[in-house]
């Protein structure tokens, strides 16, 4: 057992945007799996915007990562020691490994991955991000053919799922993305009818004009994962009976830009346009995960639903990769390879 | 035909809070009912906060009142001339008469009122305001026994309906009202478990502390009809999976108080607490009106649901009464008697 456990811990709580000093790389002995547990050698783990929220000590839907605790993440790896029925050495599994080279998982919380499935796909298109897009669009967005959808972070694993599902359901789809390359990807790979580079628009008013041009019949569904300037731009364009599923607000995770009070503007739209705004956390809806896989996995296998990954290497590069991702520096699902 | 038509028109669009000069009293000849129409001598008409919105020229769910047009209102009166099958002179009917002594109504848009029903009740507890409270609470608030509800303008026709229905459904009910007298009325007549005088609290933080004390288990349903300081106070107290039906925001009809940007605060709660915010306009839901009457009219007849009216006299006093109502100067459903 020359192997050592290496893991990234939370060294201190960030003030605003995270910086490398907020994290620490720690090493130690490999843990031993207890009864009903397995030791997993992590091959890949996922980086997601929601992890920024776990770094704060605020009341939220999940407990914060404690200072000195391993950063939370879903990972994929091979079982290297098993103390559980039904899982053997060499099995590939996924579970909440954290940002770590190895993790002990309860067998009940590890899901085996079949050989035919690309291992990293369970972190993205067929995992929590894809499920988030599928659930929020279908159950809360209630898409109808002929309507118009807007989604930001449109080349990410949530946004690209939302856009492709909506397009297949007969909606006009408008992508918001950062930079010309991502806009091209949104149109070419993910089939968006229009793509708008938010970096080309300094303020909400300018961005709104661009969205209005791309959505001449108004916006029926705004799938919300960013908040900030995009939200401010879209709200006045919403149609009567519009729906806003809310699964994230990455623009506000590190703080809030200066602005006048935008709450009355939103509230007026909610009333006048009879809008539905629905916050959701995908972890509440695992009972729908089988339905998601039944619907989406065959479409992914047939190539009808495309996805992109951005794979960075080396556990010690996870903090800087995470920081870069929060600023939109990745293209596609951000994954760390150990 | 010594009678003249008298009506209150919109003289100009208000800037902020309406003032008497925004209205005009005009007189003219009585109109003649065309085929399928009746002429109604109005006995009472309703004043409601939504009318403030109709005075603006903004895009909204209903067309604005044009300059020189009669102010919109539901009224009750007697048919004095009929040119329609099924309605005769002397019948009491309700319909959209406007702020006027007489109105021509299509028979299809006039509803006959049976003799046993108190005429003004169709403007309040058994009319649009009561229906608004019933629909918003049941269909969007989805009340469950043991939960806690907060509603503002709690002695008004919407708030008092919401509070009594929620109490009967086994919820803890918290009233927000303006002044000690209304708070006493909320508790004594409408059965609220607690009543908070918003005038005793200068800012949202102070009001929030009072609501928190009255709602020790948090707030599951905030029935929104005021916006402003009350909304800001309640949002952080909302429980996970809380619901906010939004039917009005009277605090913001005349303008917005100074504040920092409260949108991120709301948005964070929507996400973290998986809240549902649902704007609604009761006019979209007339298909549920019979269900409302079947449920509520017998309970009103039995005295299980109480209501209060504030009847002012004289068409020419309608503007000042309306202005007073927008500032909370009335107690119970505001009605004008001609």
From TrEMBL, chains A, B:
Enzymatic class: oxidoreductase
Residues annotated as domain Enoyl reductase (ER): 16-336
Gene giving rise to this polypeptide: curA
Top-rank lineage group of the source organism: Bacteria
Protein's organism: Roseivivax jejudonensis
Name of the protein in its database record: NADPH-dependent curcumin reductase
Alphabetical UniProt keywords: Oxidoreductase
The UniProt record lists the keyword Oxidoreductase: yes
A Gene Ontology molecular function term of the record: oxidoreductase activity, acting on the CH-CH group of donors, NAD or NADP as acceptor
InterPro entries, alphabetized: ADH-like_C, ADH_N_2, ER, GroES-like_sf, MDR_fam, NAD(P)-bd_dom_sf
SUPFAM superfamilies linked: GroES-like, NAD(P)-binding Rossmann-fold domains
EC number: 1.3.1.-
A Pfam family annotated for this UniProt entry: ADH_zinc_N
């Amino acid at each position: 057992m020359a192997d050592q456990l290496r893991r990234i811990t939370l060294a201190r709580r960030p003030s605003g945007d995270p910086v490398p000093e907020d994290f620490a790389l720690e090493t130690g002995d490999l843990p031993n799996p207890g009864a009903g547990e397995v030791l997993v050698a992590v091959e890949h783990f996922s980086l997601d915007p929601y992890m920024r929220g776990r770094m704060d000590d605020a009341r939220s839907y999940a407990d914060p990562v404690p200072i000195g605790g391993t950063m939370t993440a879903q990972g994929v790896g091979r079982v290297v020691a098993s103390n559980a029925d039904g899982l053997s050495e060499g099995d590939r599994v996924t579970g909440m490994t954290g940002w770590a080279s190895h993790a002990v998982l309860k067998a009940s919380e590890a899901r085996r991955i079949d050989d035919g499935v690309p291992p990293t796909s369970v972190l993205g298109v067929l995992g929590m991000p894809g499920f988030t897009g599928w659930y929020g669009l279908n159950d809360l967005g209630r898409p109808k053919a002929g309507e118009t959808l807007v989604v930001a972070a449109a080349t990410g694993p949530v946004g690209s799922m939302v856009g492709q599902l909506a397009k297949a359901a007969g909606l006009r789809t408008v992508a918001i993305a950062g930079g010309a390359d991502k806009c091209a990807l949104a149109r070419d790979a993910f089939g968006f009818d229009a793509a708008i580079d938010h970096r080309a628009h300094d303020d909400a008013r300018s961005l709104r004009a661009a969205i209005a041009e791309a959505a001449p019949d108004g916006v029926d569904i705004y799938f919300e994962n960013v908040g900030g300037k995009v939200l401010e731009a879209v709200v006045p364009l919403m149609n009567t009976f519009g729906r806003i599923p809310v699964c994230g607000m990455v623009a506000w995770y590190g703080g809030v830009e200066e602005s006048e009070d935008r709450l009355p503007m939103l509230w007026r739209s909610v009333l006048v346009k009879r809008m539905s705004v629905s916050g959701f956390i995908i972890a509440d809806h695992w009972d729908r995960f089988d339905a998601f896989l039944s619907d989406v996995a065959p479409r992914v296998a047939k190539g009808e639903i495309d996805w992109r990954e951005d794979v960075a290497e080396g556990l010690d590069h996870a903090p800087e990769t995470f920081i870069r991702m929060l600023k939109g520096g990745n293209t596609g699902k951000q994954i760390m390879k150990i």
